[in-house]
Amino acid sequence: MKFLFDDESFDYETLRAAGFACYGGAELGEVITTARRIPDGDESAWLTEWEATADRVRAIGESAAQAGHLVSAREALLRASNYYRTAEFYRRDDPAHDPKARELSRLARETFWAAAQLMETPVIPVSIPYADTTLPGYLYLADDTGAQRPTVLFNSGFDSTLEESYFALAAGAVARGYHVLAFDGPGQGAVIREQGLTFRHDWEAVITPVVDFALTRPEIDPARISLFGYSLGGYLAARAAAFEPRLAALILDDGLYDYHAAHERIMPPFLSEWIAQGRDEEANAVAALMMAVSTTTRWALRNGVWTFGATSPADYVRRTADYTLAGIADKIQCPTLVFEAENDLFFKGEAPRVYEALTCKKELIVGTEADGAGEHCHTGAILLTLQRLFDWLDDTHAAA
C-alpha cells in the first residue's frame, strides 16, 4: 500500500508515523510536508527533517503549556514524541553510544510524559521488578475510581517503544473501559538504551514478573488479564503465554511462529548455510552487499545486532534460531486471537502457522489491503484493528 516513498522501508515507517494520527500522534499535513523534504533512502535527511518537525511541534506544546492551554499542549507534545521516535529510527550504527540517538530517544520519552500528565484519564509511571533490576512501564487507567477493570498487558516488539503503546493500543483501550499495563522489556525502548539488556527467547521470564506486578494493583481484575503482543511481540507474547496460566486471553498482532524462518525466507539458501556453519566472515560480506542495496535489510540487521547483543549480522541471525513456537504453541491454553497482515513486509505467512499450531480456542483475523489493514501490524488501520480486537475481547470475557 504505497504511501509517500518508493523506498519500502521509508514508506512503511512514514505510514506508521501517520497512522497514529487517529489518537493524536500525528498531523497528516505535518507528515506529508516532512516527507517531501526527504530524498528516498536518505537516512541522514530522514533524521534531520523529522527532528526539525519534532522540535517545532514541541515548541508549540511547551508554549501552549506555559500559557495554560493544556489541551493544545497535550496534543502538540504527543505528536512531538512520535516524531522524535521516527527521527531516531534509522540511527543504528551504535545507538548505545551515539549522542544523537540517545538525545532523540530521551526527547521522545520526555515529551510523551509531559503530554501524559495532561491526559483526561490517569497515566501512572511504574517500575516492574525484574531479575535484579526493574522494567519501566505505564499503567493507563480507564478512570480514577479505583474500580477493578479488565486489563491488557502491552508487549512491544523489535523496535517499538513504551511510549508507542498509547497510540497502538492504550488510547483505544481506555475509551472502552480497559486498563493497559505497558512496559519496555529486554531489548526494547529505554531498557536496551539505558540498561543495556538485550532480547531473550524465553520471554516467560519477563511476563511472569509483569503479571506478578499486575496482581499487586487493586485496579486490575485478576481474572481478566490479557496479553497483547505487537510485531516481534507476536512471538514473545505467545511464548510467554505457553507458560503463564494466569492469562485470560492472548492477542497476537501479528502472529509469528518462527522468527528465524522469517529471516531465512529473505536470504539466499547458501547464505543461510554459511551462517549455520559459522562461516561468518563470508556471510557478513554478503550481508554487507545486501545492506548496501536495501534500507529494510540494513536497518533490520543493524537493529538486530544491537538489540540481541550480537557481534555481527551473521551472529544475530544465528541467535534468532531459538525464537520459535515449535513444540510450544500447543501449550497455550487461553483463548487466542491471531492477526495476519495480507502484505506483511516482515513476517508474511507466519500468522497462519501460529493459528494452525494452536490447540486452544482461537480465531484468525486477516487484515487486507482492500480494507487498508494489509500492512505489518495493520499500520494505517489502527481504529479498525482495535475495533476487531476489543469486540473479540469483550465477547471472550463475557463467555468466560
From TrEMBL:
The record ties this protein, via Pfam families, to:
FrsA-like (PF06500)
Keywords, comma-separated and alphabetical: Hydrolase
Alphabetized Gene3D superfamilies for the sequence = acylaminoacyl peptidase, alpha/beta hydrolase
MF-aspect GO terms = hydrolase activity
Query: Which superkingdom, per the lineage?
Result: Bacteria
Q: Which family does it belong to?
A: Belongs to the AB hydrolase superfamily.
Q: What is this protein called?
A: Alpha/beta fold hydrolase
- Species source reads Nocardia yunnanensis
